[in-house]
Amino acid sequence: MSATWRRWVLVGVLGLVGCRTTGTAVRETQAEPSRQEVQFEPVTVTADLELSSLNDEELFAGGTSAFAANDFAKAARYFGRLADFHPTSSHRNEALYNAGLAHERLEQWEDAAMRFSELADAQKGTGDTLDAAFRLAETHYHLERFEDAAKVLKVIAEREDLPVGKRLEAQVQQGVCELESGQPEKAEATLQKAITTYEGLADKDEVEDYFPAQAHFFRGEIYRLYYDAVKLDPAKGSDALANDLNYKAELLLSAQGHYLRAIRVGNGHWATAAGSQIGALYENLYEHLVNSPAPAELDAEEAQVYREELRKKVRVLLTKSINIYERTLEAAERIGSQNTFVARTRESLEKMKRLLLADTDSAPAPAPVKAEPHS
Question: pLDDT tens, 5-26?
Answer without folding.
Answer: 222 222 222 222 233 333 333 2
